[in-house]
Amino acid sequence: MSDTDLRPRIKARTRTQRPQLHKVILVNDDYTPREFVVVVLKAEFRMNESQAYRVMLTAHQRGVCVVAVFARDIAETKATRATDMARSQGYPLLFTTEPEE
Ligand code: TYC
Predict the structure, then answer these.
(1) How far is the CA of 62 from the centre of ligand 1 (A)?
(2) CA 24 – CA 76 distance, rounded (Å)
(3) CATH for 30-99?
């Protein structure tokens, strides 16, 4: 008789590879007006007034606040655009990015 073992081997694991997400972080400073921070958050991150106000206030009180998470290139583009929007008005407002754990 054949001794070929036809039992299934250990089941293969299928794991979908998802791109790592990156956080966009709003950094507090002493010079940018609160209202301007809110305007930038609404314009670049599609937030409404109360969402934007809460994020601005958290950064103001704690030093930084996570604005949102995106795929890396989108996070970097939005952080750059938002920071440039502030530079064009002469404000030191800064958005940075960092990979999510
Ligand atoms: N700290 C600023 C002020 O008192 C307001 C501000 C909030 C600036 C959040 C940057 O990320 C920021 N005018």
Answers:
(1) 11
(2) 8
(3) 3.30.1390.10
User: What residues contact residue 20 under an 8 Å CB cut-off, 6+ apart?
Assistant: 72, 99, 100
58-101 confidence digits (pLDDT tens): 999 999 999 999 999 999 999 999 999 999 999 999 999 999 98
- ipTM score assigned to the predicted complex: 0.98
Cα of 51 from ligand 1 centre, angstroms: 15
Q: What ranges do the domains of the chain cover?
A: 30-99
Is any ligand 1 atom within 6 A of the Cβ of residue 28? yes
Which residue lies with its CA nearest to atom 13 of ligand 1? Answer: 33
